[in-house]
Amino acid sequence: MRIEQLTFTRFLAAFFVVVFHYGRNVYPFNVEVLKPVLLRGNLGVSYFFVLSGFVLILAYYERGNFFGVQQFYINRIARLLPTVYLALFLYIFYETILIGNKIQLDEFVINFLFIQSWFPSLALSLNSPAWSLSVEFLFYLVFPFLLKMLYYKLSLKKIFLVITIIWVISLVILTVILNTGIYKSPPAAIHNFTFYFPLMHINAFLIGTISAVFFLKIKDSFKSKTYQVIIISFIIFLCIYFQPKAINLHNGVLAPLFGLFLILLGSCKGKITKVFKSKFLIYLGRISFAFYILQSPIWRFFNYFTKSIEMTSNERFLFFVLTLTVISFLVYEIIEKPLNIKIRMLYYKNRQNIENANT
How confident is the model at residue 206 (pLDDT cuts 50, 70, 90)? Predict the structure, then answer.
């Protein structure tokens, strides 16, 4: 099951992260009233984790016994690996060939295997935004077992209770670390553990899954209104804007609100749905993965090849975003989509050959 109006929100979250990394000091993002929000642009990643759990449930929950674990893993590999490896090798090419820096073997290996976030001191090594894909990798590994051992066996109330307990425990751990002498500022390993370690984010993924199950239960009897989507969006904005100093929103604090937002937007048939379901915005959502994962290497290449061109910071960021968008479009059309199809076809062909050999 696919809900197209959710697709564009992926691009909005990715753009929010890009602004957080490279555009906080350019107009209009440097306007004082926007700074409290943009300084927390990394929340776009937390939204990704909730959305990931949500869309996986929509895609696989109702398959029941027809859910294939091997097929699920192949689909994830086909979806992610081509673009992630492209970004990794672009980053390595820039560092080694253009700049002349050396790449440590351990950094390459853990990034190649999607396990960098498990090693706090190396979580942001090489293509730093890929740390979140390392976290997603854990989600994908556990999802089939989560589905079969939790969602197909327990009642919705019991699942809700389990996930709520996990969410509360993870936030207590986060708060304790940040408000005691344990925490140290980056690049300390405890900082990377707190904000990038996979188990610190599984609460957001789990809330995304339970939100999707609830959505599937009510989708035929409940239709939200545009004003309800706007209200929950405004509440999220206020929570980000007035974040208390003692609480950090990065590790799933807002996950329940993100889950509610997805339920309301997914259930909405109003004007906002018509806008978000426009072909152009849906397409931006589809190229958002390349837009997100390529941001770091493309930023480096962009600055390297435009360093002799005089531009204001506003112009530089604008042209960078346009460049990143065009390259994301090309990567999606030339690499991501074709290889996705090819990898899946190879899997089905090999599976068919095996089945034929056994008959």
Answer: very high
What is the length of the chain?
359
- Beta carbons within 10 angstroms of residue 100's beta carbon: 7
d(CA 177, CA 173): 6
> Which residue, among 109, 284, 124, has the nearest Cα to 196 in the 3D structure?
124
**Rounded Cα distance, 143 and 282, in Å:** 26
End-to-end CA distance of the chain: 33
**Residue range 112-126, pLDDT digits in tens:** 999 999 998 899 999
List pLDDT tens digits, range 248-282.
888 899 999 999 999 999 999 888 999 999 999 99
Question: For residues 253 and 247, is the Cβ–Cβ distance under 8 A?
Answer: yes
- Asked if 323 and 302 touch (Cβ cutoff 8 Å), the reply is yes
The Cα-based distances of 118 to 20, 28, 110, 131, 138 in angstroms read: 24, 36, 9, 9, 10
CA dist 329 to 28, 83, 204, Å?
Answer: 25, 12, 29
Classify the phi-psi angles of 64: left when phi > 0, otherwise alpha if psi is within -120 to 50, otherwise beta. left
Q: Are 265 and 285 in contact (CB under 8 A)?
A: no
Q: Name 264's Cβ contacts closer than 8 Å, sequence gap at least 6.
A: 224, 228, 229, 232
Alpha-carbon dihedral angle through residues 190, 206, 125, 174, given to the nearest 10 degrees: -20
d(CA 116, CA 66): 33
Predicted structure pTM score:
0.93
- Is the N-terminal amide bond of 28 cis, ω within 30° of 0? yes
Q: For the chain, percent helix, then strand, then coil, each to nearest 5?
A: 75, 0, 25
Closest CA to 87 of 303, 293, 286, 302: 293
Parse the chain into domains and list their residue ranges. 4-357
CA 330 to the chain's CA centroid: 21
Q: Which residues of 18-30 are buried (b: 16+ CB within 10 A; e: fewer)?
A: bbbebbeebeebe
Residue 110: how many other CB atoms lie within 10 Å: 20
Amino acid identity, position 185: S
